[in-house]
């Protein structure tokens, strides 16, 4: 029904106490481009990937009681092996092996596995705030 109404994914938002650090991570790792952001009463950075996917990074409200990410970036639970059944965003990459090598060169802990279909490769890791990420190839 939603597809018939023209619905499509526009953006994903992430809040952070350091949106500049988080923006730099997504720019360096995935090739996002920073685009002009509207002015709000709090700091935001908007990033664009390709022609139509946006990531909105929002300065974390210091009064909020919600956790910063699904895992604390320093939590012992922040093991990428937990992500196949946990919250994550997945990106497709054209050269999986090269992409994984670049993550490892950046010192990012990666959990790799082959998809049960035997054809698709998957890798799971965290951004600096503990948000789960996956790449497939």
Automatic annotation (TrEMBL):
Protein name: VOC domain-containing protein
Pfam families in UniProt: Glyoxalase (PF00903)
PROSITE patterns found in the cross-reference section: VOC
Sequence ranges assigned to domain VOC in this UniProt record: 8-137
InterPro entries: Glyas_Bleomycin-R_OHBP_Dase, Glyas_Fos-R_dOase_dom, VOC_core
């Amino acid at each position: 029904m939603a597809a018939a109404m023209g619905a499509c994914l526009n953006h994903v938002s992430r809040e952070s106490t350091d949106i500049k650090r988080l923006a730099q991570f997504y720019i360096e790792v995935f090739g996002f481009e920073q685009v002009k952001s509207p002015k709000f009463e709090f700091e935001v950075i908007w990033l664009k990937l390709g022609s139509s996917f946006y990531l909105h990074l929002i300065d974390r409200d210091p009064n909020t009681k919600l956790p910063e990410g699904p895992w604390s970036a320093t939590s012992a639970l922040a093991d990428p092996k937990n992500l196949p059944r946990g919250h994550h965003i997945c990106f497709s990459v054209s050269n999986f092996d090269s992409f994984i090598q670049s993550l490892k060169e950046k010192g990012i802990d990666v959990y790799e596995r082959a998809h049960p279909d035997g054809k698709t490769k998957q890798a799971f890791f965290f951004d600096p705030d503990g948000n789960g990420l996956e790449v497939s190839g």
